[in-house]
């Protein structure tokens, strides 16, 4: 026991590795939005094709997520994340190759699969390593995710002006290489700990877990995650285009997309602390949904101050993402169930999440206006706010027994 405790990673190392991995969960994706019109112009891709490109990561998450807990069980979560970081690097670099749009889509799918693995495993790592600080730690890693993603959006256009958009897309590979190097120290320590523990006598068999697929609460968490993801990826893909449609420059639009994400850092840290003191999160879900609705209504009614509405939407959207990830950890009653719920919520959730970016591109191409997609966004916001009210209850999925 003492040897295992000595070999186990320190709390500071656990924190640092979680944050650096979280920093890689969005930049490779968020760098695309500000460059979407330039990519379309250079490649001849239509708005529909660009919408598919924007939604490709989300649909890839949906395919990968349900199987990640099996991968984590077979390889171990530390090793699975390490391999995912290496695959993320390869996929990101693949997008810099000249055979577009083939390499562009292939690289996007590959990097998204790697991110999908990490998306599922990070909440489980948090629940395992910080069981008494789940909301605060979820807020911290969401802030890390958001901060780096916003920087990637903000520098995308200036970087593309300097070295070309393909190399701008490939630039985030440096982040995943750094993360893999840092994560490898945790991997080595965890392997030593696991080897020692595996030599110990077997403990009593764990209580049989109930399938999350039969739980009403799990479905509420899944729908909340899915519909809030749909709004996030809709704006990630099209916010820059909505700005340029209203007469803003490409560079200003890129800065606005960066602000949409960066301002969420404040929201996640504040909301994380608030949630740490609360057992029931229903009013948090309603408040964040209301804020998002105000931001979208502002875009429709007062587009002259579009950057203001981008900031308001950013505050609400990033905090809602953090809330959905927290729900995955808190609504499960064990680490194994958290793995199953994370796979379910992100698997089905990202199928839902990919619909609005594609629908938005189609509606704009048919109507020539961004108003119909924004009205569709309002409907989605109303749905996830309602579902979030029920998913925010202070209950957990029971290990066995009647449905809840």
TrEMBL record:
Q: Which InterPro entries match?
A: MFS, MFS_Cyanate_Porter, MFS_dom, MFS_trans_sf
What's the protein's topology in the membrane? Answer: Multi-pass membrane protein
Domain Major facilitator superfamily (MFS) profile, chain residue ranges per copy = 12-394
Q: Membrane-spanning regions, if any? A: 44-68, 80-98, 104-126, 138-159, 165-183, 217-240, 252-271, 283-302, 308-330, 342-364, 370-391
The record's keywords, sorted A to Z, are: Membrane, Transmembrane, Transmembrane helix
**One Pfam short name:** MFS_1
The entry's localization annotation reads:
Cell membrane
This protein's record includes keyword Zinc: no
Q: Does the keyword Transmembrane helix apply?
A: yes
Instruction: From the Swiss-Prot or TrEMBL record, give the protein name.
Output: MFS transporter
- Which source organism? Nesterenkonia flava
């Amino acid at each position: 026991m003492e040897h295992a405790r000595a070999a186990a990673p320190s709390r500071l190392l656990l924190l640092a590795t979680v944050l650096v991995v979280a920093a890689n969960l969005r930049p490779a994706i968020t760098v695309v939005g500000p460059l979407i019109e330039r990519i379309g112009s250079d490649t001849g891709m239509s708005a529909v094709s660009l919408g598919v490109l924007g939604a490709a990561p989300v649909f890839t998450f949906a395919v990968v997520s349900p199987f990640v807990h099996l991968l984590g069980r077979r390889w171990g979560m530390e090793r699975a994340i390490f391999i995912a970081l290496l695959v993320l690097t390869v996929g990101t670099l693949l997008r810099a190759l000249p055979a577009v749009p083939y390499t562009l889509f292939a690289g996007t799918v590959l990097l998204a699969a790697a991110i999908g693995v990490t998306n599922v495993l990070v909440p489980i790592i948090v629940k395992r390593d910080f069981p008494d600080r789940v909301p605060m730690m979820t807020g911290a890693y969401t802030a890390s995710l958001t901060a780096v993603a916003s920087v990637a959006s903000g520098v995308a256009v200036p970087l593309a002006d300097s070295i070309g958009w393909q190399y701008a897309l490939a630039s985030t590979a440096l982040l995943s290489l750094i993360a893999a190097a840092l994560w490898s120290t945790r991997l080595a320590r965890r392997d030593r700990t696991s080897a020692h523990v595996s030599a110990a006598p077997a403990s009593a068999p764990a209580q049989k877990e109930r399938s999350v697929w039969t739980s009403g609460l799990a479905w509420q968490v899944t729908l909340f995650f899915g519909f809030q993801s749909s709004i996030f990826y809709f704006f990630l893909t099209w916010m820059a285009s909505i700005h340029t449609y209203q007469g803003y420059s490409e560079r200003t639009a890129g800065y606005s997309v960066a602000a949409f994400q960066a301002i969420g850092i404040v929201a996640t840290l504040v909301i994380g602390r608030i949630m740490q003191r609360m057992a029931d999160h229903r009013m948090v879900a309603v408040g964040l949904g209301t804020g998002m609705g105000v931001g979208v209504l502002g875009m429709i009614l007062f587009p002259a101050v579009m950057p203001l509405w981008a900031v308001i939407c950013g505050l609400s959207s990033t905090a809602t993402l953090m809330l959905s990830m927290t729900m995955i950890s808190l609504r499960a009653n064990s680490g194994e169930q958290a793995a199953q719920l994370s796979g379910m919520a992100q698997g089905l959730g990202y199928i839902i999440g990919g619909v609005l970016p594609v629908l938005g591109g189609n509606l704009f191409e048919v109507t020539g206006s961004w108003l119909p997609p924004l009205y569709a966004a309002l409907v989605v916001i109303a749905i996830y706010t309602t579902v979030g009210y029920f998913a925010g209850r202070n209950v957990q999925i029971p290990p066995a027994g009647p449905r809840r």
